[in-house]
Protein backbone atom coordinates (compact mmCIF):
# COMPACT_ATOMS: atom_id res chain seq x y z
CA UNK A 1 0.00 0.00 0.00
CA UNK A 2 1.36 3.39 -0.92
CA UNK A 3 1.75 5.71 2.03
CA UNK A 4 1.00 8.78 0.00
CA UNK A 5 -2.70 8.97 -0.57
CA UNK A 6 -3.65 10.56 -3.83
CA UNK A 7 -5.66 13.25 -2.04
CA UNK A 8 -2.78 14.36 0.20
CA UNK A 9 -1.54 17.87 -0.43
CA UNK A 10 2.17 17.94 -1.36
CA UNK A 11 4.21 18.40 1.79
CA UNK A 12 5.62 21.80 0.70
CA UNK A 13 2.03 23.07 0.38
CA UNK A 14 1.18 21.71 3.83
CA UNK A 15 4.15 23.58 5.32
CA UNK A 16 3.29 26.79 3.46
CA UNK A 17 -0.31 26.45 4.69
CA UNK A 18 0.83 26.39 8.30
CA UNK A 19 2.91 29.53 7.87
CA UNK A 20 -0.13 31.21 6.20
CA UNK A 21 -2.39 30.28 9.09
CA UNK A 22 0.07 31.77 11.57
CA UNK A 23 0.23 34.93 9.47
CA UNK A 24 -3.56 35.16 9.31
CA UNK A 25 -3.58 35.04 13.12
CA UNK A 26 -1.25 38.02 13.24
CA UNK A 27 1.56 35.95 14.77
CA UNK A 28 4.12 37.26 12.27
CA UNK A 29 6.06 34.02 11.92
CA UNK A 30 8.07 35.06 8.87
CA UNK A 31 10.79 37.17 10.55
CA UNK A 32 11.37 34.35 13.05
CA UNK A 33 11.37 31.70 10.32
CA UNK A 34 13.79 33.66 8.11
CA UNK A 35 16.12 34.28 11.06
CA UNK A 36 15.98 30.62 12.05
CA UNK A 37 16.74 29.45 8.52
CA UNK A 38 19.75 31.77 8.52
CA UNK A 39 20.94 30.27 11.83
CA UNK A 40 20.70 26.74 10.44
CA UNK A 41 22.77 27.78 7.44
CA UNK A 42 25.31 30.13 8.99
CA UNK A 43 25.49 29.76 12.77
CA UNK A 44 25.01 26.06 13.58
CA UNK A 45 27.93 24.81 11.58
CA UNK A 46 30.63 22.19 12.28
CA UNK A 47 33.27 24.95 12.36
CA UNK A 48 32.01 25.60 15.93
CA UNK A 49 32.88 22.11 17.11
CA UNK A 50 36.10 22.25 15.10
CA UNK A 51 37.20 25.27 17.16
CA UNK A 52 36.42 23.33 20.35
CA UNK A 53 38.46 20.36 19.15
CA UNK A 54 41.42 22.51 18.10
CA UNK A 55 41.41 24.27 21.47
CA UNK A 56 41.28 20.92 23.29
CA UNK A 57 44.25 19.69 21.24
CA UNK A 58 46.38 22.73 22.07
CA UNK A 59 45.29 23.63 25.62
CA UNK A 60 45.42 20.72 28.11
CA UNK A 61 43.57 22.67 30.82
CA UNK A 62 40.72 23.42 28.38
CA UNK A 63 40.67 19.75 27.37
CA UNK A 64 40.21 18.76 31.02
CA UNK A 65 37.38 21.26 31.44
CA UNK A 66 35.74 20.03 28.21
CA UNK A 67 35.83 16.41 29.35
CA UNK A 68 34.45 17.38 32.77
CA UNK A 69 31.65 19.74 31.69
CA UNK A 70 31.22 20.15 27.95
CA UNK A 71 28.49 22.79 28.04
CA UNK A 72 30.49 25.17 30.26
CA UNK A 73 33.67 24.58 28.25
CA UNK A 74 32.10 25.40 24.86
CA UNK A 75 30.55 28.51 26.42
CA UNK A 76 34.13 29.77 26.94
CA UNK A 77 34.37 29.90 23.12
CA UNK A 78 31.08 31.79 22.90
CA UNK A 79 29.07 28.71 21.88
CA UNK A 80 25.63 28.04 23.32
CA UNK A 81 23.19 25.16 23.30
CA UNK A 82 19.35 25.07 23.37
CA UNK A 83 17.72 25.10 26.81
CA UNK A 84 16.67 21.45 26.57
CA UNK A 85 20.27 20.33 25.93
CA UNK A 86 21.38 20.46 29.55
CA UNK A 87 24.55 18.46 29.20
CA UNK A 88 27.31 18.04 26.61
CA UNK A 89 29.65 15.08 26.90
CA UNK A 90 32.87 15.07 24.88
CA UNK A 91 34.01 11.54 24.04
CA UNK A 92 37.74 11.30 23.68
CA UNK A 93 39.17 9.02 21.02
CA UNK A 94 42.53 7.44 21.78
CA UNK A 95 44.86 5.10 19.94
CA UNK A 96 42.85 2.20 21.42
CA UNK A 97 39.31 3.57 21.69
CA UNK A 98 37.00 4.89 18.99
CA UNK A 99 33.71 6.61 19.84
CA UNK A 100 30.76 7.04 17.49
CA UNK A 101 27.38 8.69 18.14
CA UNK A 102 23.90 7.94 16.80
CA UNK A 103 20.24 8.35 17.74
CA UNK A 104 18.21 5.19 17.19
CA UNK A 105 14.81 6.69 18.07
CA UNK A 106 14.90 10.06 16.32
CA UNK A 107 17.94 12.06 15.22
CA UNK A 108 19.17 14.03 18.21
CA UNK A 109 22.52 15.81 17.99
CA UNK A 110 24.41 18.70 19.57
CA UNK A 111 23.51 20.68 16.44
CA UNK A 112 24.63 24.09 17.64
CA UNK A 113 28.12 22.66 18.18
CA UNK A 114 28.77 20.01 15.51
CA UNK A 115 26.20 21.28 12.99
CA UNK A 116 22.80 19.90 12.06
CA UNK A 117 22.76 16.16 11.43
CA UNK A 118 23.53 15.13 7.84
CA UNK A 119 20.90 13.25 5.84
CA UNK A 120 22.42 9.80 6.36
CA UNK A 121 22.47 10.25 10.18
CA UNK A 122 18.66 10.60 10.06
CA UNK A 123 18.15 7.66 7.70
CA UNK A 124 16.76 4.36 9.00
CA UNK A 125 19.89 2.50 7.82
CA UNK A 126 22.23 4.34 10.19
CA UNK A 127 19.71 4.48 13.05
CA UNK A 128 19.02 0.74 12.87
CA UNK A 129 22.51 -0.57 12.22
CA UNK A 130 24.99 1.66 14.07
CA UNK A 131 24.37 0.07 17.48
CA UNK A 132 24.34 -3.55 16.34
CA UNK A 133 26.79 -3.62 13.44
CA UNK A 134 29.08 -0.76 14.38
CA UNK A 135 32.31 -2.08 12.90
CA UNK A 136 30.60 -3.17 9.68
CA UNK A 137 28.79 0.15 9.26
CA UNK A 138 31.98 2.14 9.89
CA UNK A 139 33.86 -0.01 7.37
CA UNK A 140 31.13 0.53 4.77
CA UNK A 141 31.41 4.26 5.42
CA UNK A 142 35.13 4.17 4.74
CA UNK A 143 36.53 3.76 8.28
CA UNK A 144 38.14 0.33 8.55
CA UNK A 145 39.29 0.15 12.18
CA UNK A 146 41.91 -2.40 13.19
CA UNK A 147 40.42 -5.16 15.37
CA UNK A 148 42.42 -4.07 18.44
CA UNK A 149 40.60 -0.72 18.55
CA UNK A 150 37.61 -0.89 20.87
CA UNK A 151 34.41 0.70 19.55
CA UNK A 152 32.08 2.64 21.84
CA UNK A 153 28.72 3.58 20.37
CA UNK A 154 26.65 6.30 22.08
CA UNK A 155 22.89 6.26 21.47
CA UNK A 156 21.45 9.74 22.13
CA UNK A 157 18.33 8.37 23.83
CA UNK A 158 17.90 11.24 26.33
CA UNK A 159 18.72 14.95 26.22
CA UNK A 160 22.43 14.60 26.97
CA UNK A 161 24.31 15.53 23.82
CA UNK A 162 27.59 14.05 22.67
CA UNK A 163 30.48 15.07 20.46
CA UNK A 164 33.51 13.01 19.61
CA UNK A 165 36.90 14.53 20.39
CA UNK A 166 38.96 13.09 17.54
CA UNK A 167 42.55 11.96 17.90
CA UNK A 168 44.96 14.64 16.77
CA UNK A 169 46.86 13.45 13.68
CA UNK A 170 50.61 13.10 14.20
CA UNK A 171 51.39 15.20 11.11
CA UNK A 172 49.92 18.33 12.73
CA UNK A 173 52.80 18.84 15.19
CA UNK A 174 53.32 22.57 15.76
CA UNK A 175 50.22 23.68 13.84
CA UNK A 176 48.26 26.75 14.96
CA UNK A 177 44.80 26.37 16.48
CA UNK A 178 43.26 27.92 13.38
CA UNK A 179 45.03 25.53 11.03
CA UNK A 180 44.04 22.58 13.22
CA UNK A 181 40.37 23.63 13.27
CA UNK A 182 40.34 23.59 9.47
CA UNK A 183 40.91 19.82 9.31
CA UNK A 184 38.16 18.85 11.81
CA UNK A 185 35.02 17.60 10.07
CA UNK A 186 31.43 16.94 11.15
CA UNK A 187 32.00 13.25 10.32
CA UNK A 188 34.96 13.12 12.71
CA UNK A 189 32.88 14.69 15.51
CA UNK A 190 30.09 12.13 14.86
CA UNK A 191 32.74 9.45 14.84
CA UNK A 192 32.31 7.93 11.38
CA UNK A 193 35.74 9.19 10.30
CA UNK A 194 39.20 9.56 11.83
CA UNK A 195 41.45 12.43 10.83
CA UNK B 1 5.30 2.43 22.70
CA UNK B 2 7.03 -0.21 20.64
CA UNK B 3 6.67 1.84 17.46
CA UNK B 4 8.21 2.15 14.02
CA UNK B 5 10.58 4.85 15.29
CA UNK B 6 12.44 2.50 17.62
CA UNK B 7 14.95 1.22 15.11
CA UNK B 8 18.03 0.23 17.10
CA UNK B 9 19.10 -3.27 16.05
CA UNK B 10 16.36 -3.75 13.45
CA UNK B 11 17.63 -5.86 10.58
CA UNK B 12 17.13 -5.81 6.85
CA UNK B 13 18.38 -2.29 6.14
CA UNK B 14 21.06 -1.79 3.51
CA UNK B 15 24.12 0.43 3.36
CA UNK B 16 24.11 3.94 4.75
CA UNK B 17 23.94 6.52 1.90
CA UNK B 18 27.02 8.28 3.11
CA UNK B 19 28.95 11.05 1.44
CA UNK B 20 31.52 13.33 3.11
CA UNK B 21 29.66 16.38 1.78
CA UNK B 22 26.24 15.17 2.87
CA UNK B 23 23.49 17.76 2.98
CA UNK B 24 21.33 18.66 5.97
CA UNK B 25 18.40 19.93 3.91
CA UNK B 26 17.28 19.04 0.39
CA UNK B 27 14.51 21.62 -0.13
CA UNK B 28 13.48 25.04 1.17
CA UNK B 29 10.26 23.75 2.74
CA UNK B 30 12.40 21.53 5.02
CA UNK B 31 14.18 24.57 6.42
CA UNK B 32 10.90 26.42 6.93
CA UNK B 33 9.25 23.42 8.57
CA UNK B 34 12.22 23.14 10.93
CA UNK B 35 11.85 26.83 11.76
CA UNK B 36 8.07 26.57 12.26
CA UNK B 37 8.74 23.87 14.84
CA UNK B 38 11.14 26.19 16.67
CA UNK B 39 8.56 29.00 16.41
CA UNK B 40 5.88 26.77 17.95
CA UNK B 41 8.17 25.69 20.79
CA UNK B 42 8.96 29.36 21.47
CA UNK B 43 5.24 30.15 21.61
CA UNK B 44 4.96 27.49 24.34
CA UNK B 45 2.54 25.34 22.33
CA UNK B 46 4.47 22.11 22.72
CA UNK B 47 7.50 20.56 24.36
CA UNK B 48 10.14 18.28 22.82
CA UNK B 49 8.75 15.11 24.40
CA UNK B 50 5.27 15.78 23.03
CA UNK B 51 6.88 16.46 19.67
CA UNK B 52 8.91 13.25 19.61
CA UNK B 53 5.86 11.23 20.66
CA UNK B 54 3.69 12.85 17.97
CA UNK B 55 6.17 11.55 15.37
CA UNK B 56 6.11 8.09 16.94
CA UNK B 57 2.31 8.09 16.65
CA UNK B 58 2.37 8.50 12.86
CA UNK B 59 0.55 5.74 11.02
CA UNK B 60 3.35 3.17 10.51
CA UNK B 61 3.29 3.17 6.69
CA UNK B 62 3.32 6.97 6.63
CA UNK B 63 6.14 6.98 9.21
CA UNK B 64 8.29 4.64 7.13
CA UNK B 65 7.70 6.35 3.79
CA UNK B 66 8.04 9.98 4.93
CA UNK B 67 11.48 11.59 5.06
CA UNK B 68 12.83 13.19 8.23
CA UNK B 69 11.33 16.64 7.70
CA UNK B 70 7.92 15.29 6.68
CA UNK B 71 7.91 13.29 9.92
CA UNK B 72 8.90 16.42 11.81
CA UNK B 73 6.15 18.46 10.17
CA UNK B 74 3.50 15.77 10.73
CA UNK B 75 4.38 15.62 14.43
CA UNK B 76 4.18 19.39 14.68
CA UNK B 77 0.80 19.87 12.99
CA UNK B 78 -0.69 16.90 14.83
CA UNK B 79 0.04 18.65 18.13
CA UNK B 80 -1.13 22.04 16.87
CA UNK B 81 -4.45 20.53 15.74
CA UNK B 82 -4.86 18.48 18.94
CA UNK B 83 -4.20 21.55 21.08
CA UNK B 84 -6.58 23.71 19.06
CA UNK B 85 -3.92 26.15 17.79
CA UNK B 86 -4.89 25.49 14.17
CA UNK B 87 -7.70 23.50 12.58
CA UNK B 88 -7.15 20.68 10.15
CA UNK B 89 -9.90 21.99 7.87
CA UNK B 90 -8.24 25.39 7.62
CA UNK B 91 -4.87 23.80 6.77
CA UNK B 92 -6.46 21.50 4.18
CA UNK B 93 -8.35 24.33 2.55
CA UNK B 94 -5.19 26.41 2.14
CA UNK B 95 -2.98 23.45 1.17
CA UNK B 96 -5.55 22.31 -1.42
CA UNK B 97 -5.61 18.68 -0.29
CA UNK B 98 -5.59 16.32 2.66
CA UNK B 99 -3.17 16.96 5.54
CA UNK B 100 -2.36 13.62 7.18
CA UNK B 101 -1.94 13.63 10.96
CA UNK B 102 -0.61 11.13 13.47
CA UNK B 103 -2.88 8.68 15.31
CA UNK B 104 -4.27 9.58 18.77
CA UNK B 105 -2.16 9.35 21.90
CA UNK B 106 -2.51 6.74 24.66
CA UNK B 107 -2.06 7.72 28.34
CA UNK B 108 1.36 8.52 29.80
CA UNK B 109 2.63 7.69 33.28
CA UNK B 110 4.37 9.44 36.20
CA UNK B 111 7.90 8.68 37.48
CA UNK B 112 8.38 5.20 38.91
CA UNK B 113 7.86 5.07 42.68
CA UNK B 114 10.91 4.37 44.84
CA UNK B 115 13.55 5.28 42.26
CA UNK B 116 17.11 4.42 43.25
CA UNK B 117 20.16 6.60 42.71
CA UNK B 118 23.25 5.12 41.09
CA UNK B 119 26.87 6.09 40.72
CA UNK B 120 29.48 5.24 38.11
CA UNK B 121 30.47 1.59 38.34
CA UNK B 122 27.07 0.39 39.58
CA UNK B 123 25.54 -2.59 37.79
CA UNK B 124 21.98 -1.87 36.70
CA UNK B 125 19.19 -3.68 34.91
CA UNK B 126 16.59 -2.08 32.65
CA UNK B 127 13.06 -2.88 33.79
CA UNK B 128 10.72 -4.92 31.62
CA UNK B 129 8.38 -1.99 31.01
CA UNK B 130 5.77 -2.08 28.26
CA UNK B 131 3.82 1.13 27.91
CA UNK B 132 1.31 2.44 25.33
CA UNK B 133 2.60 6.04 25.51
CA UNK B 134 5.94 7.77 25.11
CA UNK B 135 9.10 6.19 26.51
CA UNK B 136 12.76 6.91 25.79
CA UNK B 137 13.96 3.40 26.52
CA UNK B 138 15.01 1.84 23.23
CA UNK B 139 13.48 -1.64 23.13
CA UNK B 140 16.87 -3.26 22.55
CA UNK B 141 17.91 -2.60 26.18
CA UNK B 142 14.68 -3.83 27.80
CA UNK B 143 15.55 -6.31 30.57
CA UNK B 144 19.29 -6.02 29.80
CA UNK B 145 22.10 -5.44 32.30
CA UNK B 146 24.82 -2.81 32.05
CA UNK B 147 27.18 -0.60 34.04
CA UNK B 148 26.66 3.07 34.87
CA UNK B 149 29.47 5.26 33.49
CA UNK B 150 28.04 8.76 34.12
CA UNK B 151 25.05 10.73 35.39
CA UNK B 152 23.34 13.69 33.71
CA UNK B 153 21.53 16.68 35.24
CA UNK B 154 17.82 16.13 35.92
CA UNK B 155 15.51 16.27 32.91
CA UNK B 156 11.73 16.24 32.52
CA UNK B 157 10.52 12.61 32.62
CA UNK B 158 9.51 11.89 29.00
CA UNK B 159 6.81 9.30 29.79
CA UNK B 160 4.95 12.01 31.71
CA UNK B 161 6.14 15.17 29.95
CA UNK B 162 4.87 13.97 26.55
CA UNK B 163 1.39 13.51 27.99
CA UNK B 164 0.87 16.42 30.38
CA UNK B 165 1.15 14.10 33.39
CA UNK B 166 2.64 15.81 36.49
CA UNK B 167 6.10 14.47 37.32
CA UNK B 168 9.48 15.35 38.79
CA UNK B 169 12.62 15.87 36.76
CA UNK B 170 15.05 13.01 37.11
CA UNK B 171 18.61 12.28 35.96
CA UNK B 172 19.58 9.94 33.18
CA UNK B 173 22.48 7.56 33.51
CA UNK B 174 24.85 6.74 30.70
CA UNK B 175 24.75 2.95 30.91
CA UNK B 176 27.31 0.83 29.11
CA UNK B 177 26.08 -2.40 27.56
CA UNK B 178 27.92 -4.96 25.47
CA UNK B 179 26.50 -5.35 21.96
CA UNK B 180 27.17 -9.09 22.22
CA UNK B 181 24.83 -9.24 25.24
CA UNK B 182 22.15 -7.09 23.64
CA UNK B 183 22.08 -9.35 20.56
CA UNK B 184 23.78 -12.61 21.57
CA UNK B 185 25.76 -14.22 18.75
CA UNK B 186 24.62 -11.62 16.27
CA UNK B 187 26.30 -8.27 16.80
CA UNK B 188 29.66 -6.67 16.07
CA UNK B 189 31.61 -6.62 19.36
CA UNK B 190 31.39 -3.13 20.86
CA UNK B 191 30.24 -1.18 23.86
CA UNK B 192 26.85 0.47 23.39
CA UNK B 193 26.07 3.40 25.70
CA UNK B 194 22.51 4.53 26.25
CA UNK B 195 21.16 7.49 28.27
CA UNK B 196 18.63 5.77 30.55
CA UNK B 197 16.16 7.56 32.80
CA UNK B 198 16.29 6.68 36.48
CA UNK B 199 12.69 5.39 36.41
CA UNK B 200 13.67 2.68 33.93
CA UNK B 201 16.47 1.20 36.07
CA UNK B 202 16.90 -1.15 39.04
CA UNK B 203 20.10 -2.32 40.71
CA UNK B 204 21.38 -5.55 39.16
Outline of the structure:
The complex is a heterodimer of chains A (195) and B (204). Chain A is an alpha/beta fold.
Walk me through the structure:
The complex is a heterodimer of chains A (195) and B (204). Helices cover 46% and strands 12% of the residues of chain A. Chain A has 195 residues and is an alpha/beta fold. Chain A is globular, with a radius of gyration of 19 Å. The model of chain A has no long low-confidence stretch (mean pLDDT 95). Helix content of chain B is 30%, strand content 17%. Chain B has seven helices and five strands. Chain B has helices at 28-42, 48-56, 60-65, 68-82, 88-95, 158-161, 179-182; strands at residues 123-126, 145-155, 170-178, 191-197, 201-203. A five-stranded antiparallel sheet of chain B has the order 4-3-2-1-5. The model of chain B has no long low-confidence stretch (mean pLDDT 97). Chains A and B meet through α1, α2, α7, α8 and α9 of A and α1, α2, α3, α4 and α5 of B.
Uncertain stretches of 5 or more adjacent residues of chain A? none
Number of domains of chain B: 2
The strands making up the biggest β-sheet of chain B line up spatially as 4-3-2-1-5
CATH superfamily caption of the largest domain in chain B: Nitrile hydratase, beta subunit
Work out the radius of gyration of chain A: 19 Å
- Structural class of chain A comes to alpha/beta
**Shape estimate of chain B:** globular
- In the predicted model, the low-confidence regions of chain B spanning at least 5 consecutive residues are none
Q: What is the count of DSSP helices of chain B, taking H or I runs of 4+ residues?
A: 7
What is the CATH architecture term of the largest domain in chain B? Answer: Orthogonal Bundle
Q: CATH topology of the largest domain in chain A, which one?
A: Nitrile Hydratase, Chain A
Give the largest interface pair and sizes: A-B, 77 and 87 residues
What is the straight-line distance between the termini of chain A? 45 Å
Residue fraction in strands of chain A? 5-15%
| Overall strand count of chain B | 5
Distance between the termini of chain B: 24 Å
Helix content of chain B: 25-40%
The CATH superfamily of the largest domain in chain A bears the name Nitrile hydratase alpha /Thiocyanate hydrolase gamma
Q: At the third CATH level, what is the topology name of the largest domain in chain B?
A: Cyclin A, domain 1
